[in-house]
Design the sequence.
């Protein structure tokens, strides 16, 4: 049956076939049934804004499939991509728990399925199901550790080249495919967005990638980036 | 210890439970509570004083990128994620710190499900403070 954006849509959490792969969703049937009764499933195209930094918390989103960029901005309008969330992550939990405005903005970077749970329903779910509390605590802890990792990279890297190399090596570890041409990465982010992940400018990212391409450390074909000299790139990283 | 007693009057359910079982110790300036890369053994409630959260590079460079002070609890997220400590916690100014080991903490959670909300709120505050720190480092220049 045709589905929006050819996504494999999971309408019921209890019957979801991929939930065991997802940290937050891998809960018992009664808890998932309770979640099913309060969630709203939607499919979003690329570029959909889920919530905006500073907005009062409406609730949480469970990212079932797709990817979402989480950003924060300075008062001068500069943007930092704090994280690219993957399937199985819970978004907006800290604001919903604290009752404070969303700390970040969230926008899909590819077609995505999300389950939305209103804040009151989410808090009721937590009250009734300790297991949901544990899984929310694990999600928040993972976000904390991911943020610490970024703090280390942003705070200790000595050059922008080092920050970019570190980002690409992280992608290699997480999503890279070994191919005869090197480690293949599918990069869905623009140079501007990559710059926003490491706190630099689009021009610097373009210049660094061109430089590495000239040195045959990487190769770029459309949205595919091949890391040909993994060791050489690792040597750029000190953190 | 007056600070501990003052805290007990106003704290959330989690802290109240922890105050009953904590082992309070005074840590002088320069001492280290735990090292980066160590397995989490417990959680630390800071009653007074300040603690530098020091991050290290592979080449040995180290920088205090964050600071923790009363009434923060450090080490909480590592208990849930079971990940090694991300930083070294070194006392900047003499601290009074309450320590609760992982097993005792887990027993508290099992026996009092009502304190889960306090746990989730503290973890949420920790996450938000990390985002503030990232914003300061990356966007302040």
Sequence:
């Amino acid at each position: 049956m045709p589905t929006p954006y050819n996504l494999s849509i999971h309408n019921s959490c209890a019957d979801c076939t991929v939930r065991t792969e997802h940290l937050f969703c891998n809960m018992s049937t009664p808890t998932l049934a309770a979640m099913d009764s309060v969630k709203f499933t939607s499919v979003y195209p690329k570029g959909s804004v889920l919530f905006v930094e500073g907005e009062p918390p409406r609730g949480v989103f469970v990212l079932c499939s797709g990817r979402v960029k989480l950003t924060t901005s300075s008062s001068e309008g500069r943007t930092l991509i704090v994280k690219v969330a993957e399937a199985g992550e819970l978004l907006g939990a800290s604001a919903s728990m604290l009752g404070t405005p969303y700390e970040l903005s969230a926008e899909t970077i590819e077609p995505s399925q999300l389950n939305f749970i209103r804040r009151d329903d989410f808090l009721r779910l937590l009250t009734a199901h300790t297991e949901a509390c544990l899984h929310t605590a694990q999600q928040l802890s993972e976000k904390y550790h991911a943020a610490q990792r970024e703090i280390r990279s942003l705070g200790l890297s000595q050059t922008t080249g080092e920050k970019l190399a570190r980002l690409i090596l992280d992608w290699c570890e997480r999503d890279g495919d070994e191919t005869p041409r090197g480690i293949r990465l599918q990069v869905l982010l623009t140079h501007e967005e990559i710059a926003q992940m490491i706190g630099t400018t689009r021009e610097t990212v373009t210049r660094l990638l061109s430089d590495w391409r000239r040195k045959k450390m990487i190769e770029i074909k459309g949205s595919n980036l091949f890391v040909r000299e993994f060791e050489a790139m690792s040597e750029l990283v000190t953190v | 210890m007056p600070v501990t007693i003052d805290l007990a009057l106003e704290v959330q359910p989690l802290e109240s439970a922890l105050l009953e079982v904590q082992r309070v110790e005074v840590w002088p300036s320069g001492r280290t509570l735990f090292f980066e890369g160590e397995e989490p053994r417990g959680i630390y409630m800071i009653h007074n004083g300040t603690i530098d959260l020091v991050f290290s590079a592979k080449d040995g460079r180290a920088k205090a990128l964050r600071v923790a002070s009363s009434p923060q609890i450090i080490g909480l997220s590592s208990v849930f994620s079971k990940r090694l400590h991300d930083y070294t916690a070194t006392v900047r100014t003499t601290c009074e710190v309450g320590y609760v080991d992982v097993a005792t903490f887990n027993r508290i959670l099992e026996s009092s499900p009502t304190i889960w909300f306090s746990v989730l709120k503290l973890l949420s505050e920790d996450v938000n403070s990390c985002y503030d720190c990232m914003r300061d480092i990356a966007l302040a220049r």
Remarks:
- The domain at 2-139 of chain B is CATH 2.60.120.10 (Jelly Rolls).
- Chain B has one domain: 2-139.
- The interface with chain A takes residues 55-59, 61, 63, 65-66, 76-81, 83, 86-87, 113, 116-117, 119-121, 123-128, 130-131, 133-135, 137-141 of chain B (CB under 8 Å).
- The longest helix of chain B spans residues 116-139.
